[in-house]
Amino acid sequence: MGCLLVPARSISRLVRKIEVDAVFRTGRKAVTGAMVLFLLKNNVQPAAAVRYAIRVPKKYGTAVERNRVKRIFREAISLYGKSWMGYDMVVFPRPQVKGAKMQDIAAYLQEAFSGVTGRGTQERS
Length: 125
Known about the structure:
Layout: E1 11-13, H1 17-26, E2 28-31, E3 35-41, E4 50-54, H2 63-80, E5 87-93, H3 102-117
Parallel strand pairs: 1-4, 4-5
Antiparallel strand pairs: 2-3, 3-5
């Protein structure tokens, strides 16, 4: 299974509180066993940009565990983010993803994204 790399400039993080709050207020929510995903169509230029924030609370575990999960989610978004272009997303991982591999997390993200948008993504070669 090959990866379609997404240009780094088209993927960025939501860093301002007002942007993250907008996703919470007006975005759609998907709850899966592995995460809670908030998704909102963005109007950022270029139109194909995907922006994200990953929030992991302290009750999740130690700093090492929290940072590992965030690192894996960032990698999954950067490798598989082409399907999520044009959206802002805020991800809350659940403790069930501890120890999960990047491909598993990408599948969880895809499942949640499909649940919110009602559309799947095309298979990549």
